[in-house]
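Inverse folding, one chain.
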């Protein structure tokens, strides 16, 4: 089985989930919003959004290239591995048993998704590391996803929390151009924008989901 993955559909599910969570925070008159959350605190919200969108969500999965390692604690892990229709994921590094689900999705048919959160303004004020977090750290995930021979379907999600849509468009364009100049195999993104209440200086949460091709 080789499911046809649509980054637009995945982006729609993420947008819907974040809009719902943002509306809850506004209704609660919360002191802090989505932009006050650390990256790992935002991951469960993203996971819930994807589950609500009908996907199977398998978090912190070892990259296929690292699965031959004996200890499960060894090797790099991917933030989210998605399967269609909520199906289980085949654990190829485990011995097959009679209890394995016949509907389990093979690793190569799943969608491997890395997510990075970068905020222009934080609880401490303007983020001095904003540019380096966006331009350097995020590119490493593209490299990992594209070079693993066991991954055929992959994407990189950038959650950008900035002052306005113009800042997001400008900064994502710079990031994309630099990736292309380095030969990183990204596709045109699916971009969604969720307006958020300005609590720290950020006025929008922009989701940019890039497909990552296998090298």
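Residues assigned per position:
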């Amino acid at each position: 089985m080789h499911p046809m993955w649509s980054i637009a559909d995945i982006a729609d599910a993420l947008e819907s989930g974040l809009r719902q969570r943002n509306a809850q925070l506004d209704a609660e008159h919360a002191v802090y919003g989505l932009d006050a959350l650390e990256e790992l605190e935002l991951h469960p919200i993203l996971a819930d959004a994807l589950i609500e969108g009908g996907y199977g969500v398998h978090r912190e999965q070892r990259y296929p290239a690292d699965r031959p390692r004996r200890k499960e604690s060894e090797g790099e892990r991917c933030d989210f591995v998605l399967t269609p229709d909520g199906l289980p994921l085949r654990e190829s590094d485990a011995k097959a048993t009679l209890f394995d689900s016949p509907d389990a999705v093979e690793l190569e048919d799943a969608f491997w998704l890395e997510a990075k959160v970068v905020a222009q303004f934080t609880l401490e004020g303007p983020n001095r590391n904003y540019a380096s977090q966006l331009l350097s750290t995020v590119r490493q995930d593209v490299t990992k996803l594209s070079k693993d021979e066991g991954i055929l379907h992959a994407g990189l999600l950038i959650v950008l929390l900035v002052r306005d849509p113009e800042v997001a468009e400008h900064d994502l364009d710079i990031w994309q151009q630099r990736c292309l100049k380095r030969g990183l195999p990204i596709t045109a993104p699916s971009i969604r924008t969720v307006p958020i209440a300005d609590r720290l200086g950020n006025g929008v949460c922009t989701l940019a989901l890039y497909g990552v091709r296998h090298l």
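The longest strand covers residues 153-162. The radius of gyration is 18 Å.
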